[in-house]
Design goal:
The structure holds two protein chains of two kinds. Chain A is an all-alpha fold. In chain A, α1 crosses α5. The radius of gyration of chain A is 22 Å and the shape is elongated. A six-stranded mixed sheet of chain B has the order 8-9-10-5-11-12, sandwiched between helices. A four-stranded antiparallel sheet of chain B has the order 4-3-6-7, with helices on one face. In chain B, a hairpin with a 2-residue loop joins β11 and β12. Chain B is globular and about 50 Å long. The relative contact order of chain B is 0.15. Classes of the chains: A mainly alpha, B alpha/beta.
Chain lengths: 201, 281
């Protein structure tokens, strides 16, 4: 063992957590608490579904050669912004809960040598994944819903535009989820390793 | 088992904190005086540590000046009633908390001089932690829990698997590699935690009431395992405990009361069977 060695200690700084490993741990954290993860994801899903429905409605209108009145466009923008804001607040809230719940786990990881930024990374990846899948489903739901209500123009739809809007929704949903998790993740990372020693649950 | 790893570690750049000490040099101490440096004999040296907490605007002195030297390969138990400062002392030695006054040296390195990265490195490689509540990561299998510190230390996947399996073998859980903590008994979980604490071949194992959440029989087997590791691999073991069995196999027992070390004794002197010890109820 290490104690047999002669010579003073060499303190190094190198501590690593490869992205693949961090991803694996984050994914596991989601799958093991799938029920709650789905509720968190559902927040993103609803916000993005609404955003995509607005986009898809515009594409459908273009296909039917209808103009969108300016006032209505502004109202839509406002509603979209509000719904996204609500999703962000929802995600922040559930990530905060998740941090509180995992105090001991985070403290333990720090005792094992995890740096603050590992903890941040784990939470951001987790939230990013939730955001990605939430917005994927949300975007599809929003699109399908609008297409079903405008079946008469489906033939004329510009699918390239539709695909582009899907991409935008995915991007917005994922980025917003990650941003929403920054605060909670920092809070988790600042936790002292000694928290792991606390015996009360 | 660490021979090759240590050889490479020793080849790395000399740390400035201990430069010039090898040739009978001196080590700066907390009070500014210089003291003959007694080489590699001590793995932990605490000098005049005081810790003051501010609780509700009132100063609480958890430690009132503690000196403690722990030799390499020693099995030390720290005991004391709750509120005695036992946990605080324990956390200081483990690099989990910083003293208000005084210095803690681990393996000749002054903890106060280390930044966050170096402290993390120290926790990762030099110290293995064992907790009263086991603290395995619930989403990971037993083997993954054991290999997690190795990932932090940058070990290759092959190395992780090889060492992880060997450690699980040492704690006699080679048949439960892929079980989640929730599928293991308390004793088994604590064995996994012991294997995890050994992951990067630390110089010190810190065990905080390792038998506190276990029944008598299981606790006994955990104590025997710790003692065996201490004897066979020479790892220094520091425990905070109330457990008589744990105390009886210690090399030395440090009794803490009222923020001070009131006595450093041996199990023989303490006559454990009678069960009454000064400063401890």
């Amino acid at each position: 063992m290490a104690t047999m060695s002669a010579g003073p200690a060499k303190i190094d700084r190198q501590i690593s957590l490869p992205f693949a490993q961090a991803f694996k741990i984050a994914l596991r954290n989601i799958t093991i608490r799938l029920g709650r993860a789905m509720i968190t994801g559902a927040g993103t899903m609803l916000g993005i579904a609404f955003l995509m429905s607005v986009f898809a409605a515009n594409v459908a209108r273009a296909a039917a050669n209808e103009a969108v009145p300016l006032a209505e466009q502004q109202k839509q923008n406002w509603l979209v912004a509000m719904s996204l804001l609500v999703s962000v607040v929802g995600i922040t809230n559930s990530m905060l809960m998740s941090v509180t719940e995992r105090y001991k786990e985070i403290g333990t990881m720090k005792c094992l040598g995890a740096l603050d930024n590992f903890i941040v990374r784990l939470f951001l990846i987790e939230s990013g994944l939730l955001g990605f899948f939430g917005s994927l489903f949300g975007a599809l739901i929003g699109m399908i819903f609008i297409l079903l209500t405008r079946l008469n123009v489906v033939g004329n739809i510009n699918w390239l535009h539709m695909l582009m809007y899907l991409g935008i929704c995915l991007l917005i949903g994922t980025v917003l989820s990650v941003i929403a998790a920054v605060g909670p993740a920092m809070r988790a990372a600042r936790m002292a390793p000694v928290e792991a020693m606390r015996t009360e649950v | 088992m660490a021979a090759s790893k240590e050889a490479t570690t020793s080849a790395t750049v000399e740390n400035s904190a201990n430069g010039g000490m090898k040739n009978g040099g001196t080590l700066p101490t907390a009070d500014g005086t210089n003291e003959a440096y007694s080489g590699q004999e001590y793995i932990v040296r605490a000098k005049g540590i005081k810790k003051t907490f501010l609780v509700g605007g009132q100063e609480v002195h958890a430690l009132r000046g503690v000196d403690l030297d722990i030799k390499r390969g020693e099995y030390i138990s720290i005991m004391g009633p709750s509120g005695s400062g036992k946990s605080t002392l324990f956390n200081m030695i483990g690099g989990l908390d910083k003293p208000t006054e005084g210095t803690v040296f681990i393996d000749e390195v002054d903890l106060a001089q280390l930044d966050a990265f170096e402290l993390a490195w120290l926790r990762c490689r030099k110290i293995g932690y064992i907790f009263q509540t086991f603290n395995l990561i619930p989403v990971m299998t037993a083997l993954e829990n054991v290999t997690l510190p190795m990932i932090f230390a940058g070990a290759s996947l092959d190395e992780q698997m090889e060492r992880g399996r060997r450690l699980m073998d040492i704690v006699e859980l080679e048949h439960r590699l892929h079980n989640k903590p929730s599928q293991l008994s308390g004793g088994q979980q604590q064995r996994v935690a012991i294997a995890r604490s050994l992951a990067n071949e630390p110089a010190i194992i810190l065990a905080d009431e390792p038998t506190g959440n276990l029944d008598q029989k299981t606790g006994k087997s955990i104590i025997e395992l710790l003692k065996r590791l201490n004897k066979e691999s020479g790892v220094t073991i520091i425990t905070a405990t109330h457990d008589d069995k744990m105390l009886s196999i210690s090399d030395r027992i440090v009794v803490v009361a009222d923020g001070q070390v009131t006595k450093i004794t041996t199990p023989q002197e303490m006559d454990l069977h009678k069960g009454t010890v000064e400063g401890f109820h």
